[in-house]
Write a structure and sequence with these properties.
The complex is a heterodimer of chains A (875) and B (108).
Chain A (H helix, E strand, L loop, with lengths): L1 H6 L5 H10 L2 H22 L1 H15 L2 H4 L11 H18 L1 H29 L11 E10 L2 E5 L5 H10 L3 E7 L3 E7 L2 E10 L2 H5 L4 E4 L9 E5 H8 L8 E4 L3 E9 L13 E4 H7 L1 H6 L9 E6 L5 H8 L2 H5 L9 E6 H4 L4 E3 L2 E3 L3 H31 L2 H10 L3 H38 L10 H25 L5 H6 L10 H32 L10 E5 L3 H5 L1 H11 L2 E7 L8 E3 L15 E6 L3 H5 L3 E4 L12 E5 H7 L8 E4 L2 E9 L14 E5 L6 E6 L5 H15 L8 E2 H7 L2 H35 L1 H9 L4 H36 L9 H28 L2 H5 L3
Parallel strand pairs in A: 5-10, 7-9, 18-23, 20-22
Antiparallel strand pairs in A: 1-2, 1-11, 1-12, 3-11, 4-5, 4-8, 6-9, 7-10, 8-9, 13-14, 15-24, 15-25, 16-24, 17-18, 19-22, 20-23, 21-22
Helix pairs in contact in A: 2-4, 3-4, 6-18, 7-16, 7-18, 7-28, 16-19, 16-21, 16-28, 18-19, 21-28, 21-30, 21-31, 23-26, 28-31, 30-31
Chain B lengths: L7 H12 L6 H12 L5 H14 L2 E6 L10 E6 L1 H19 L8
Helix pairs in contact in B: 1-2, 1-3, 2-3
Classes of the chains: A alpha+beta (875), B mainly alpha (108).
């Protein structure tokens, strides 16, 4: 029998294999039987060769779609959805069974996702800044580089004749050209209603250039010197629901304008977000004598010039043409090597700082910084998720064994594990999404934004869902692909052992997590320290109880003496005076000062502030040498008080009594005061001179009587101001608040980075917590036996904690140089900066170790306190 | 002919199933057709036809016929259903009808 079987004619093997490969599993038996039967018959009837040929022919004839995909209802096969339902059910049971794990895992991932979504929204908002205007990609600001004393400065203020020169010489390159005044507060009134709003005086092209959406009236009506355009919100504030068109409004209580149009409010994310109404350029020109004078003065760099380039040209081409325009027109300015260039609108927001004629930093660095931090926090959360999921899955090796014995195929196990991890990721995503909805208002406040959740952004949703899937699949890949390959026998017998290096990937991930966290913590500490450092810097004047009122109406200008009289008599104020700049800023500077011993190559560029008698007492500056201005000396009108930086800048050791020439007049230095911080508190102090210039005054400064409650005092001040300045609301600014604003950018970074680094730490700790929980559980029996043999709680605790402390220490070692390099670079941008002291690093390391120990100890102690009888009991 | 249309090959397969009633499956149907018609047919076309007939409800299949020949495995046996039988009868009747209406002169 055996003999005959061996000699039995065999059909071509490859054809059989082909059949098995391509045909539906349940059909194969039937077809093969048919083929074999026919083959045997044919061998007898037509011979082996023909039978083989016919066999092949038959196999090929079976390769037709109708047979390949026949569905059978007689073969026991649950539909795929049925199995999927089962997977999901099992997944939910698993989640419910290990509540702590599931909670840690899902919550950690959703925190990471929330952070990433929020940062993503922020980055998106920053990147799309200024891009809501229709022609933003062709609009630019004319700026210029100029070199003084060997340093190239870049300013966005240009001389006024530049505008005419561009119009006359390069009209073909521009679609629109518009000069604009700087944004400032104006008092608008209609009937009894008075409001103070920010606005600009602009040329007629401005509304067209920025394609303002007109709700009423026409955009190009600013050519008329008596027309004004209002934003919708201003129109509503002034006129309520009435039709504003052709109504007459008063501006700063002196000029009348007819409302020629109403435009839709500009969005929050544009450079001109504060501009709530537009007045004709003509008003600016007529109202301010110095502006009129500047029309032919190439030396006064004080104006904002906006252009929209023609469609057939590019910024580079225009830059090439206009670079030397100033040097050509103004020979005396050529020594500063002025270079005009266009700064495209799309870059205004993110690339706004120059150093020596090259663009540096700007907001883009924060976009990158937070983008990277967001990516890292998300990465940490994902690592956590995977770490925990893999650690967990090892416990399920037995389950895999049993499933396989019962008949589960590997592909089914893979689907099951993927199902579980994707389900977890999906829950985390939904949670994160809800968290974002809750936190967005808070985040907006923190980041000074008005971000609206992009419900209709399909790409965003796709990204979110795609990311969730990828995270789920990645996290599930280890159990799905590795565990499912186990041989059931070895798993069930318990002979399967994780290799020596099974924990290595997990340890690497923990090190990575802590490296990122520690780096973030060091960064945050440095930022906070830098802010503290600048805040501790001596300010040079007394901010408390000092308030300023802008002189913006003729009434205030003319009634100042009477007003001062009343103020002093009221007993509310200690001192009152006027000056040309706010106390915390210097608004003007001049380059034509000269003094004995001045290097002819040096430019006498000093900040200039005009003050009245009593200014020094009002702001409380500290005299170093000499004396303050005094009404007793009539010569003080040609006297100067300078700050220490100015004395240093002029190179005068004993400045008092020295003569300074300016505008062909002789001044004498009568006093030197200690530096007052007027610019950024992180930067060097601008050398500044103070002169008695009553007519320059634009601010009234009031030092409140410290004996009085300041709120009540302000309330009573309002009455006095109303009496002398009836046309305008009483508006004042506290110097202390203005000064604090100087820190807002840095403080915002400080808050955000503190937030993100605590999130990073939190997520890392969550992961660590989960890992210890798992390890302690895995080693339960070992711990039990150790205890039985006499191990102390402390020794078990240290056994469980040691590994993690070592990992944390390694991460600290990696994090320190990284943080050092990054933070050194960051600090470089500040002239007045703190040092990277060792204490910061030591604090961060200590903190990381302590946090690690606390996290780990909780589980370690719990494990070592367990009664060994219980853990050893079950077999 | 109303109802489902029966192709020529399908008709042949259906007839073969009827002939081999109780023992009709892929191989025997192929065998039957080859013997009756003296032409070779491929197993694939027979199976396709059987599946289509089953979809149309003209045959049904059930498992049975355990024989030593096939290693003790049961096989799928096809049986002509009532609609199948009716379809065959319809065809035959129509053919006969047509035969009868052929005029004598047609053969001259």
């Amino acid at each position: 029998m055996k003999q005959t079987q061996r000699n039995r004619p065999i059909p071509p093997v490859w054809a059989t294999l082909l059949l098995r490969l391509l045909c539906d599993a349940y059909l194969i038996n039937e077809l093969e039987d048919d083929l074999n039967q026919l083959f045997e018959q044919r061998v007898k009837s037509v011979g082996l060769r023909k039978a083989r040929l016919r066999y092949i022919h038959d196999v090929l004839s079976l390769m037709r779609p109708s047979l390949l995909k026949v569905k059978s209802n007689s073969y026991p096969n649950l539909g795929y959805t049925g199995m999927l339902k089962n997977y999901i059910k099992i997944a939910f049971r698993n989640l419910a069974k290990n509540r702590t794990y599931s909670a840690i895992n899902i919550f950690g991932l959703s925190v990471g996702m929330t952070t990433a979504i929020l940062i993503g929204l922020w980055v998106w908002d920053e990147v799309s800044y200024n891009k809501s205007h229709q022609h933003y990609d062709r609009i630019a600001r004319v700026m210029q580089h100029q070199t003084y004393n060997g340093v190239t400065n870049t300013t966005l203020a240009t001389p006024l004749p530049m505008r005419a020169a561009l119009q006359n010489e390069h009209a073909n390159d521009f679609t629109y050209i518009a000069s604009s005044s700087w944004t400032r507060d104006y008092v608008l009134s209609f009937g009894d209603k008075k409001i103070s709003r920010k606005g600009n005086c602009v040329e007629p092209d401005f509304p067209l250039m920025f394609s303002l959406k007109m709700l009423r009236g026409t955009a190009n009506s600013l050519a008329s010197p008596t027309s004004a355009l209002l934003s919708e919100s201003v129109a509503r504030a002034l006129f309520g629901d009435d039709d504003p068109i052709d109504k007459i409004i008063r501006v700063d209580n002196k000029r009348h304008f007819k409302v020629a149009g109403v435009y839709e409010d500009l969005p929050n994310s544009t450079e001109f977000r504060d501009v709530s109404f537009l007045l004709p350029w003509h008003f600016f020109l007529e109202e301010e004598a110095w502006v009129k004078r500047s029309e032919t003065n190439w030396g006064n760099n004080s104006f904002l010039l906006l252009v929209q380039i023609a469609p057939n040209t590019s910024f580079e081409q225009v830059n090439g043409k206009i670079a030397n325009i100033k040097a050509r027109h103004a020979k005396e300015e050529a020594r500063f090597n002025p270079k005009a260039f266009l700064h495209p609108m799309s870059r205004w927001h993110l690339y706004s700082e120059w150093e020596n004629g090259r663009p540096v930093r700007g907001r883009i660095q924060y976009v990158w910084l937070f983008g990277v931090i967001g990516a890292f926090v998300l990465l940490l959360a994902c690592i956590n998720f995977m770490n925990l999921a893999t650690a967990r899955s090892q416990k399920r090796a037995k389950e895999v064994g049993v499933r396989k014995v019962v008949g589960s195929r590997q592909s089914q196990l893979i689907t099951q594990f993927f199902c579980e991890s994707v389900l977890m990721a999906a829950i985390a995503f939904i949670l994160a999404f809800s968290l974002v909805q809750i936190l967005l208002p808070l985040f907006n406040r923190l980041a000074d934004k008005q971000i609206v959740f992009p419900w209709y952004n399909v790409q965003g949703w796709l990204l979110g869902v795609g990311f969730t899937l990828v995270t789920g699949l990645l996290a599930g890949s280890y159990p799905a692909l590795y565990l499912s390959g186990f041989r059931p026998i070895s798993v069930l017998k318990g002979t399967l052992r994780a290799g020596r290096f099974a924990a290595l990937p997990r340890q690497t991930l923990v090190v990575f997590q802590f490296t990122v966290s520690v780096t973030l913590v060091i960064g945050t500490l440095v930022v906070l320290r830098q802010i503290r450092h600048a805040k501790d810097r001596p300010v040079g004047f007394d901010r408390s109880g000092l308030l300023s009122v802008a002189i913006n109406t003729d009434d205030l200008q003319n009634n100042a003496d009477a007003l001062f009289q009343d103020l002093r008599q009221s007993g509310l104020v200690m001192h009152v005076s006027k000056s040309s700049s706010p106390t915390t800023e210097v608004w003007s500077s001049d380059a034509s000062f000269s003094w004995p011993g001045k290097d002819p190559g040096q430019l006498g560029d000093l900040g200039t502030v005009g003050v009245t008698h009593g200014y020094g007492k009002t702001v409380g500056w500290q005299l170093k040498r000499g004396r303050d201005f005094s009404p007793g000396f009539s010569t003080d009108h040609h006297g100067m008080v300078i700050n220490e930086s100015a004395a240093k800048f002029m190179g005068l050791k004993d400045a008092v009594g020295k003569r300074v020439d300016w505008n062909s007049e002789h001044y004498t230095i009568i006093g030197v005061i200690s530096d007052v911080i007027t610019g950024s508190p992180f930067m060097p102090i601008q050398p500044t001179v103070f002169m008695l210039k009553e007519d320059w005054a634009s601010f009234i400064h009031i030092r409140l009587n410290p004996a009085l409650n300041s709120r009540q005092a302000v309330g009573r001040l309002e009455g006095i101001f109303k009496k002398h300045n009836p046309g305008s609301p009483f508006e004042y600014k506290f110097a202390s608040l203005e000064y604090d604003l100087k820190f807002s950018a840095e403080e915002r970074i400080g808050t955000l980075s503190a937030l993100f680094s605590s999130l990073a730490i939190f997520i890392s700790c969550l992961g660590l917590f989960g890992l210890t929980l798992f390890l302690a559980e895995q080693r339960q029996k070992e711990i039990g036996i150790r205890k039985v043999l006499g191990a102390s709680i402390i020794s078990i605790w240290s056994m469980l904690s040691r590994d993690f402390v070592v990992l944390t220490a390694i991460s600290c070692l990696i994090a320190i140089p990284i943080a050092f390099i990054i933070m050194r670079d960051w600090l470089e941008q500040y002239t007045y900066r703190t040092t990277l002291s060792w204490s910061i690093f030591a604090a961060a390391i200590l903190g990381a170790l302590v946090v690690t120990l606390i996290t780990v100890s909780f589980q370690a102690m719990k494990a070592s306190l367990l009664n060994p009888v219980k853990t050893l009991h079950d077999n | 002919m109303k109802g489902t249309y029966l192709g020529e090959f399908e008709e042949v397969v259906l007839l073969a199933v009827a002939i081999r009633t109780g023992d009709a499956y892929g191989a025997t149907v192929v065998d039957e057709i080859e013997q009756q018609m003296g032409r070779t047919v491929s197993l694939g076309s027979v199976h396709t036809a059987l599946h289509r007939l089953q979809e149309k409800g003209l045959v049904k299949s059930e498992f049975g016929g355990v024989t030593g020949e096939r290693g003790g495995r049961s096989k799928r046996l096809y049986i002509v259903t009532m609609p199948g039988r009716r379809a065959l009868e319809d065809i035959r009747q129509i053919r006969n009808q047509m035969w009868e209406t052929i005029p004598e002169m047609a053969w001259s």
